Every structure is written in C-alpha cells, then in structure tokens.
Amino acid sequence: MTGQPITLQTALIYLMIVVAGADQELQQTEMTRIGQIVRRYPVFEEFNVETMIPAMRDCADILSRDDGLATVFGLIRSAIDADWAETAYCVACDVAAADGSLRTLERRILDTVRSTLGVERLAAAAIERATAARWRRPTADSR
C-alpha cells in the first residue's frame, strides 16, 4: 500500500502497530492485545478479521521506508475523523498497557498519537487513567 486512503479499522490496526513497535520490538503480549481488541471492540464488528495480518504487513512495509512513520501517521490522520479520535486513543493506550508498564518511548508515541488525532489533553488523561485502572494487575502486596 502506498498513499491510498485506508479504512477506519485499518487505520486503527496501523495505530496499534505503531504503538506496539514504539520500543523497536513487537512483543507477544502486544500482538495478543491487538488480536483481542480486533475481536472484541465494537468498532471492529464489521471488520473482516482475515484482513488483519495483511494490514499489519502493509503497515510494517510502510514503516520500513525512510519516511515511513510520517506516512503511516498521515494515513491514520486521514482515516480517523474527530468522532473516532478518542476511540483511537483508547485503542492506542490499551496496546501500550499490554506489557504492564508504560515506557518512555511508549509515552512519547502516545503524545504523538494524541496530537495527531487532536485529542484534548484532559480527555487523553482520562483515557490513560481508565486504561491503567482496567489493566492493573495485583501485586504480592495487594493480594
């Protein structure tokens, strides 16, 4: 895929791949989370799951180019309008939280996602807090 328009669902998959790869490494927990999101979130109800892997490969191909990240963000921005921006940010946060911690590179990419999608800071903070609460795991002290 080059600069052709993509669907909302494909843009969300691209977004999840960008967030998962923020630390230069796609972890199994992140890939599992992406699959869970695609299977469970209402935004993907009409999405053909068989196109998920090809969409991931398309995204990876674009990212491997010199201007890949900018190109992917351009595609994401053009496919996700303001009505879906907070949903997209929620999806991004869920993938970032998959491994149980939010590293500096993931925080930076979430800032870029928030800015790219035009999500207000207060809304982003609420989404981040809800994500942290939803994916929190018990520790030995809290059991």
Automatic annotation (TrEMBL):
Transmembrane segments: none annotated. Coiled coil: none annotated. Residues 10-126 form the Co-chaperone DjlA N-terminal domain. Pfam families: TerB. This is Co-chaperone DjlA N-terminal domain-containing protein. It comes from Hankyongella ginsenosidimutans.
